[in-house]
Amino acid sequence: MWFLVGTATPLCLIGVLITQFRTRAPGAETFPQLMLARFGKRVHLLFCFITILNNLSILTSVVNTGSGFYSVISERVTFELAWIITVIVGEICASVGSMSDILPFSATIFVYLLTMGLVITIKVFFYDETGLLGKKTYNDCSRSIEKVYNATHAVDLSNEKDGDDHLTMRSYFSLEMGLCKFLARPTVEIAKRLLGPNGLFALFSLYAFIVTTATIMQIFSVTKILTLDIYAVHLRPFRVCYEVNCCIFCGKSKDEKTRPKDKCLCCDPANCQQCQEDLKSVATENINLPLSGWS
């Protein structure tokens, strides 16, 4: 029920939100671009960071839920295996979509390599007991369990009046998460008993489709933030200055009262020979384009 409400509510509101977003900002591709136009680059960078963390947290929750479903079918399915398979399938779908000019191929491959490198690095170097670094980190984490227990116990001592206890099931959040996991697992068991192998495979395909689709959407979101917001605005912007008196080539001011060091020395685009040649070449290419898809 929780997953149904959490999935159906955004689908019901997405049409209204997209309509308002496109009406108020027709040229914006992402929501942080609204923050850039209204509050500046610092707030825009903050919203980009929050958006990326939000998408990654949603992606991790989706893969974790999917691995829980898959582990009921086979106990050999782990979180790492479900994560890697889901990301690979999602990146293949995103790459196929990029061939249709839906998403830049280079950005998709960048996110794929980044995600795979992150998963492999964390698994091999931090959670593998055979390696030196992994063994040291594993031992440090084992020793830190007592520290975490003492810190949690100290927090619970200060919250005795509220009646919540993080070390037991008396916390409302722990109770909610426990009910969600308890009610989600019998679904696969019931399908296995009632529908047989074919029904179990159909339910598995449905879950795999949902997890993969959600993963692709989050990959699209993260890629857009990295390319359209962080790279195009903060790393290599097309224009350094957006004021009226700023030059579109060098970003310096054209005002006569500006210091000679900060004054623009570029020629006017109407008198620029290279600009005129570029405009002529673009116009010639547009004229020579075929009217249909047949050459």
Automatic annotation (TrEMBL):
The chain crosses the membrane at residues 43-65, 77-97, 103-126, 200-220. GO terms for cellular component: plasma membrane. The keyword Transmembrane helix applies. Keywords: Membrane, Transmembrane, Transmembrane helix, Transport. It comes from the Eukaryota. GO terms for molecular function: urea transmembrane transporter activity. This is Urea active transporter-like protein. It comes from Echinococcus granulosus (Hydatid tapeworm).
